[in-house]
Design a protein that fits this description.
Layout (H helix, E strand, L loop, with lengths): L9 H13 L2 H8 L3 H15 L4 E4 L2 E4 L1 H26 L5 E6 L1 H18 L4 E6 L13 E6 L6 E15 L1 H6 L22 H8 L16 H9 L5 E4 H9 L4 E2 L5 E12 L6 H16 L4
Parallel strand pairs: 3-4, 3-5
Antiparallel strand pairs: 1-2, 5-9, 6-7, 6-8, 6-9
Length: about 300
């Protein structure tokens, strides 16, 4: 049962949110299309209901208290959630929507080209994609699921393994023509392109080639595989890519493989979702579809 004492009217929360965002009653009034006196009354009503002073008032200036700063973070997130839910209902009243966090290069190179297949099979479902590199709390972010790289240890989540990562080193054909590589030792002195989110990738690749990795590993750092691919195409160094990405570039002649392809990596790609949303129909449809698609593509 919800206690109304702890559920302020939406107009009070919107006034508070606007003042915090704009930094003044004047800005909030303009943002909301209200008079300044109305915004001030709404703030006073909110403070009275909460029994807390949210602003220090000095010569017509408002300074948020520490309590107001904490309250704003939670209220802002709640208002965003209400807005997203309303937008989703209006845009797709029958089928529902899936808010999916996903790794950026996986989204652009693998998922997006295949999404028409899912949407044609589920015309009532819409998918909202947002890129995320790192883990987050499903209790604090408004996502229904996340496609991520790592282990099946996301707190409070259920997991579906999509595929084990396999690694392929590749480089621009011109670079390899000038610097032939016939053994792992030939990479000594060459630039090895790296991702900070894959600190052990090159070590796994060298061991998969039956060799010990050089120490220390030196090279350029990139924060996305898409950037690494372009750097390798430009001849800046040797890229170490998930095999599903490398195969496309190799097939189209932009990159050439270095030694054995598809070396086992140390982790896998997963779909994770909060246990409380396991029965969400759009999620269940997407979960079944991506598992079948992985199997069809020979990745699962």
């Amino acid at each position: 049962m919800r206690q109304r004492r702890f559920l302020p009217n939406l107009s009070l929360l919107l006034a508070f949110d606007a003042v915090m965002r704009t930094g003044s009653v004047t800005g909030a009034a303009q943002d909301l299309g209200l008079t300044q006196s109305t915004v001030s009354r709404l703030l006073q009503s909110l403070e009275a209901q909460l029994g807390q002073e949210l602003f220090i008032r000095h010569k017509k200036r408002l300074t948020p208290t520490e309590a107001a700063e904490r309250y704003f973070r939670d209220i802002s997130a709640a208002l965003d959630l209400i807005q997203r839910a309303s937008m989703s209902l209006i845009a797709n009243p029958d089928g529902g929507s899936l808010d999916l966090a996903v790794l950026p290069t996986f989204a652009t190179r693998w998922l997006a080209p295949r999404l028409p297949d899912f949407l044609s099979a589920h015309p009532g479902v819409s998918i909202n994609l947002t890129t995320r590199f790192r883990r987050f709390s499903f209790d604090e972010e408004p996502f229904d699921a996340m496609i991520f790289y790592g282990q099946d240890d996301w707190p409070g989540a259920e997991h579906l393994k999509l595929f084990d990562e396999r690694l392929t080193a590749c480089a621009a054909p011109d670079l390899l023509a000038r610097n032939p590589v016939t053994a792992p030792a030939d990479l000594a002195g060459m630039v090895l392109l790296q991702l900070p989110t894959r600190p052990d990738a090159w070590q796994a690749w060298f061991r998969g080639q039956g060799a010990e990795p050089p120490a220390p590993l030196e090279g350029m750092m990139m924060d996305q595989f898409s950037m690494m691919i372009q750097a390798a195409i430009s001849g800046l160094g040797i890229a170490l890519l998930p095999d599903y990405l490398a195969r496309v570039e190799i097939a189209e002649g932009r990159l050439a493989p270095v030694l054995r392809q598809g070396v086992p990596g140390s982790s896998a790609y997963w779909l994770a979702w909060p246990a409380r949303k396991a029965g969400l129909k759009p999620l269940a449809a997407f979960r079944d579809w991506i598992a079948a698609r992985m199997a069809r593509d020979g990745m699962g």
